[in-house]
Amino acid sequence: MGQRLHGITGQWPCDLRQEEQLQPLPEPARLAPFLVARRRVQRDGFVAYEGVATACPETWPAARWKSDPSEAYLEFSYRGQVVASHRRVTGPATVPLAGQWAGLTKTAPRRPKGPMAYQVAAPAVQVRPLEEYDALVGEWPV
Known about the structure:
- With 142 residues, the chain is an alpha+beta fold.
- It has helices at 13-20, 28-31, 130-137, and strands spanning 36-39, 46-49, 52-55, 63-67, 73-78, 81-87, 93-95.
């Protein structure tokens, strides 16, 4: 009931189910290696994943992130040791880590750069009466 012909194959979906001979999904232990991906930690200590910048406690040369099957958390591990764990966030966001920059000294603010250009005063222009030009060139026909 409520089935219609497949738009591409032109067959009934219930008939296709018997032909495909689908198997059950493998156990989670077999899928675990595919849930791990390698991401590089940026210089500011964040790892980018799905539009979210997530903090790592230290700037590791390369970190692995892994999500559990419920996909509620992101775990960062380095050489088998879990370094950080964050609740998964959707959409563009930044997820900081408490005390991420603890121990770093604040630097003095940088001096502003000098101006790129200077305004030059306009040159002085001589103002002459029109009779002087008439004396040089002569009368213009009107």
